[in-house]
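Margin note: ligand = magnesium ion.
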Amino acid sequence: MSFHTVEQATPRLHRSELAVPGNQPRFFEKAAASAADAIFLDLEDSIAPDDKEQARKNVIEALNDIDWSGKTVTVRINGLDTHYMYRDVIDVMEQAGRHVDMIMIPKVGTAADVYAIDMLVTQVEDAMGLAKRVGFSHIIETALGMANVDAIAGASRRNEALHFGVADYAASTRARTTNIGGVNPDYVVLTDADDAGERAVHWGDMWHYAIARMVIAARAHGLRPLDGPFGDLKDPDGYRAAAHRAAALGCEGKWAIHPSQIALANEVFSPSEGEVTKARRIIEAMAEAAKQGRGAVAFDGRLIDIASIRQAEVMVRKAELIAAGEAG
Ligand code: GLV
Ligand code: MG
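Resulting structure:
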């Protein structure tokens, strides 16, 4: 283990994050009553320029008037390259800051972007005497943001999560895509011909590197990595597959851009009962081994060691967070 301790961000259940456009107040109450672990009220790309001001007002009203208890509530502000951004921060924080858990910063490109928002938020919090410190979620969705992902992840003590914004990332890197977050049938490996001259086509995941890269930066700084949107609302199997791939790489959750995707995310990112039971048994087996002075033991026919305890503890901790969330 390094001498450097990785400080972990505030632990939160973050299996699903529901996107709610700020210009659609009729969805707000439903979002608050939904099964999503987290919600982001959007002031950015789902809102046309003419609606930006009204959306901001709606979001402030909703933050103050709706009971969001049990949810992590985030506001996605506009990017630093727009003139909407400063008012998003100042108006939302001044008028409803005590109800905001996190600010989501889209298209973050450099550590200095994070610094700029941190400065603004800190001033408003101080001026308003807000006791709760707002956290930051960053969307890694540009080539610049990905190139600077480590510096961004370490740029503020407010940082809690990194999200992979696949739609903008594709635009920024000029990737060839079809559906948002889907795979591309051109991204394949063709096997050599077998004896019968047949060649198999194996689809690849064109997002593998980007997600894995972001996960490493997030985890190295104690942050939660999350996978972003999946655009085909009529393809729950495609959503599940994308979520499973992200989970396999270490992501903690995925966006739901429609309420129908919440249950899918919660299902994929929750450990099963069997997994939790096994994790508890591993912790017990390793405690027994430690008493006997051993660092590794056979468990169900496989070798486990001290690293297995850490994985098992992560699993049990997650199950506890889920149980606490369900208990209300
Ligand atoms: C999210 O903002 C995305 O661009 O995918
Ligand atoms: Mg985006």
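The longest strand covers residues 16-21.
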